[in-house]
Amino acid sequence: MHSWSSVSNHPALVPGTLARASGCGRCFDVACAAAGLLVLWPALLLVAILILIFDGWPVFFRQTRMGLGGKLFRIWKFRSMKPEKPGQDGPLVTAAGDHRITRFGRLLRASKMDELPQLFNVLVGEMSVIGPRPEVPRYVNLEEPVWQAVLSVRPGITDLATLAHLDEERTLSGSEDPESYYQETVLPGKLALNVKYLHLRSWRTDLRLIVLTLQAVLHLRCRDQGWIREFLSTEIAWQAHVKDDQ
């Protein structure tokens, strides 16, 4: 189990240590988002039509998330769950077998296609292609150094923590209280990986994470956790080599 204190004391959170870490950049994000929307618009339109046919209106799910510098924004997703009735507030996390997930929604979530509309968030500058996943405000403590570090960059569609928790819904389903388990165990683990990413962040790291994400979505690699250690060690070695050459 990860604790808040152990994450907050990570050396990467020392003021100034993240200043030189940079990923692929805003131009790369805009190019990827624009190209993605241009290429995928027939698939996006088809998914929207299928949601209307099988599950009805609305097509999209909008939720407030915490973004760069603690600024709130509304995330875009294809709706995969039953709409909540007025005054009805369900859990903010979703476990496998959640009765709120629609039949077509299960397919969308399994294929990660419900996340594709976030290309709009990337295009307008609210998100990046690669970056820590944005959380709901309830889970964020702006006074914690770890959150200040995570929110120093744009949130992303995918990241190291996302890839490490591809089976998150199944993990949560084994808990009596999924939301508490997420806050006390899963989220601190994600934040620890976010801090490691921020410390290693580079164009090379981001490109590798994009490739790993495509492999995961297409089921081209197994989901064991051994790759995380290998990924981090190779990135650390590469950055050390770059510094030696400078």
Please explain how this structure is put together.
Strand 3 (128-130), helix 5 and strand 4 (156-158) form a beta-alpha-beta unit. The chain is 50% helix and 8% strand. It has a two-stranded antiparallel ribbon with strand order 1-2. It has a two-stranded parallel sheet with strand order 3-4. It has helices at residues 4-8, 26-54, 103-111, 118-123, 145-150, 160-164, 168-173, 178-200, 203-217, 226-245; strands at residues 60-66, 72-78, 128-130, 156-158. With 246 residues, the protein is mostly helical. The chain has one domain (4-245).
SSE topology:
Layout (H helix, E strand, L loop, with lengths): L3 H5 L17 H29 L5 E7 L5 E7 L24 H9 L6 H6 L4 E3 L14 H6 L5 E3 L1 H5 L3 H6 L4 H23 L2 H15 L8 H20 L1
Parallel strand pairs: 3-4
Antiparallel strand pairs: 1-2
Work out the helix count.
10
The run of helices and strands is: HHEEHHEHEHHHHH
What is the strand content?
5-15%
Based on Cα principal axes, name the global outline.
globular
Structural class: mainly alpha
Kindly state the percentage of residues in helix: 40-55%
Radius of gyration: 18 Å
The count of DSSP E runs of length 2 or more, i.e. the number of strands, is 4
Number of domains: 1
What's the pLDDT, averaged over the residues? 87
Widest β-sheet, arrangement of strands: 1-2
End-to-end Cα distance:
39 Å
Largest sheet: 2 strands, antiparallel
What are the low-pLDDT stretches, counting only 5+ consecutive residues below 50?
A: 1-6, 11-17
